[in-house]
Specification:
This is Probable acyl-CoA dehydrogenase fadE25. The protein is an alpha+beta fold. It has 12 helices and 10 strands. The protein binds flavin-adenine dinucleotide.
């Protein structure tokens, strides 16, 4: 399929408008409270499920909306524009289930994608461990074959939406001598005996998205819950990140757009020296730079989404790894700068929780850290230069 980057942008305008109005009506009103109380955004989950926006990437053949990578980006972007925590519902549903979509058996796809598409179950992704972050291949969680089963033992750390999700893609060592080639991926269910969760982390931002440890204590699961062949789990995990780093870029774009939109309105209203501060050139130049950086980040993200779609359709060029890392790195750095500038534009008021830009600046920070820190993205880019 020949992918024209600009045609889908027009086609996706209606999707953006409808997600924006839903997000403003049903998600935005709860965003400050969700952050303040560090509680799961249940209202957002219900609104997203009611409108079939909670896991748009699931193919139609498994009961999903079958949205392409760009449409998925637009959904995440628009939800993040009003509430970053809520945007992790569609984003992590994709992250958790993409290993099954990319490498799982037909039986696994049927069993786990249908409830996800219906909104009956969420999916999480368990790669990181207390002592294996950037060096994820150094993980210690083990899966040992026992007849028709595997028995899993270990601790996964920093797992987004842990406790809320029904399903978990877990990467575990099946052959300790082979390092990354000795890692396999499995679907673990919340109700599997031996699965439990740590206390929610007390975080700087995205406070509405629970981040918890997942404990696997002699978790015995059928061998057919393995995703792909034994030893391919790490490769599947990395392939997944090539696609889903673009959703983190989308989250960064949304947070930055929310901050820019708010600051743009504020500077018209706020008067100093007898006129709106928007009349000062020093303010105008800041807004121009913010909008320029945001638009550059958006174009890179959409270009990466086009590559993700081509690769998913089997006709892709092999530069998705570079583009996924570049989009995530560039958009998250831009979001940090733009949200910091938005706080600056509101002066002392921007530094308080009475205004949303303070939350947006805290939320932006995580996009530079997860799915690989931005130092790691630069390593990935350097190894995969186009
Ligand atoms: C809120 C939150 C949600 C998360 N959600 C998930 C999730 O759902 N699933 C999951 O599996 N993981 C998740 N993570 C984990 C996240 O991906 C890791 O935190 C991240 O990969 C970094 O690992 P680390 O925290 O162990 O940092 P470390 O690897 O210890 O890094 C510490 C510092 O050293 C730098 N560094 C490390 N190695 C190098 C190098 N070779 N060169 C240069 N600099 C280097 C890092 O960039 C960083 O600045 C989440 C994390 C957070 C905070």
């Amino acid at each position: 399929m020949d992918f024209d980057l600009y045609r889908p942008l027009e086609e996706h305008d209606m999707l953006r408008e409808s997600v924006r109005s839903l997000a403003e009506a049903k998600i935005a009103p709860h965003a400050a409270e969700v952050d303040e109380e560090a509680r799961f955004p249940q209202e957002a989950l219900e609104a997203l499920v009611a409108n079939d926006l909670h896991a748009v990437h699931v193919p139609e053949s498994y009961g999903g909306a079958g949205a392409d990578a760009l449409a998925t980006v637009i959904v995440i972007e628009e939800v993040a524009r009003v509430c970053a925590s809520s945007s992790l519902i569609p984003a992590v549903n994709k992250l958790g289930s993409l290993p099954v979509i990319l490498s799982g058996s037909e039986e696994l796809k049927k069993k786990y994608l249908a409830p996800l598409a219906k909104g009956d179950a969420m999916f999480s992704y368990c790669l990181s461990e207390p002592d294996a972050g950037s060096d994820a291949a150094g993980m210690k969680t083990k899966a040992v074959r026992d007849g028709d089963h595997y028995v899993l033992n270990g601790v996964k750390r920093w797992i987004t939406n842990a406790g809320v999700s029904e399903y978990y893609t877990v990467m575990a060592v099946t052959d300790p001598d082979k390092r990354s080639k000795g890692i396999s991926a499995f679907v673990v269910e919340k109700s599997d005996p031996g699965v439990s969760f740590g206390a929610p982390e007390k975080k700087l931002g995205i406070k509405g998205s629970p981040t918890r440890e997942v404990y696997l204590d002699n978790v015995r699961i059928p061998a057919d819950r393995m995703i792909g062949a034994e030893g391919t789990g790490f490769a599947t995990a990395m392939k997944t990140l090539d696609h889903t780093r673009i959703t983190i870029a989308a989250q960064a774009l949304g947070i930055a757009q929310g901050a820019l939109d708010y600051a743009k309105g504020y500077v018209q209203e706020r008067k100093q020296f007898g006129k709106p501060i928007a009349d000062f050139q020093g303010i105008q130049f800041m807004l121009a730079d913010m909008a320029m950086k945001l638009e550059a980040a958006r174009q890179l993200t959409y270009a990466a989404a086009a590559r993700s779609e081509r690769v998913a359709a089997g006709s892709g060029k092999e530069d998705l790894t570079f583009f996924g890392a570049a989009a995530k790195c560039y958009a998250s750095d831009a979001a940090m700068e733009i949200t910091t500038d938005a706080v600056q534009l509101l002066g002392g008021y921007g530094y308080t929780r009475d205004y949303p830009v303070e939350r947006m600046m805290r939320d932006a920070k995580i996009t530079q850290i997860y799915e690989g820190t931005n130092q790691v993205q630069r390593i990935v880019m350097a190894r995969n230069l186009p």
